[in-house]
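Support reply, case 0932

Customer input (verbatim):
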Amino acid sequence: MVAEIGPSNIESAFLLEALKRGTRVDGRGIYDYRTLKISCGPTYGLAEVQLGQTRVLARVSCEVTRPFPDRPTEGIVLFNTELSSMAGFGLDSSRASTQEVAISRMVERVIKQSRAIDSEALCILAGEKVWTIRIDVHFLDHGGNLIDAASIAAIAALKHFRRPDVTIDGEEAIIHDVRERNPVPLSIHHTPICVTFGFFGASGDMLVLDPTLLEEQVQVSSFTITLNSHREICALNKAGGIPLSPDQIQRCTQVALAKVDEVNEKIQLALKASTA
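Our regenerated output:
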């Protein structure tokens, strides 16, 4: 396994000194996102997100399978991630790293456990046939904050995806080719978006939104809050040993509420551009 090389002491000291003065190495404010670009298509269910130097590709596909015995009327949602060694120095694609596993579980929890997708709408014949939706997320460039980029890419791909139409004739299900009938969009209840903060200093008193790779290597803790357009909290995730005060959590929540609205607007613009 390739060992990851962290920042030098000089780089770390320079970054912390800049934060003490209220600025960041890349010139952003502490609550600023990097430039976010979202593109969908050309095929259904394909979305690419570029967040600064971080680039993520998400692809959604489907197939007809048997449901789980204990949930005969619900479809299945599968999630898979791939962090390629080409995405950054020190990464090893031959085995899943701790970071990749944590990101995969977080994004999967955000989409599945928050019930963003209407699983019952994926049922074709109860106990016999359901749609299995598979979400594959590929990390192409690692420039920091993979969680936010992955969540945006996954939800954009799900909103852009279309499944084949189905006709039920008695106990038989007829799957129509997309050339015969227009495909059908997924039933999505809400749009969960992850917003990540990095904390710095011995007591974690300094924080930034959307940490870069260098900032992630120096930070003492991170906090990810997942919100939807209805201003509902879908999930919380904290990594690192520095405890967060209620005031810090409240401040992060207020900032995240504004950022989620901005991200949702960009997702809608990308979806419209793909159909233009």
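We compared this against your earlier run and they match. Two observations from our side: The CA atoms of residues 248 and 254 lie 10 Å apart. The chain has five helices and 14 strands. Please reopen the case if you see a mismatch on your end.
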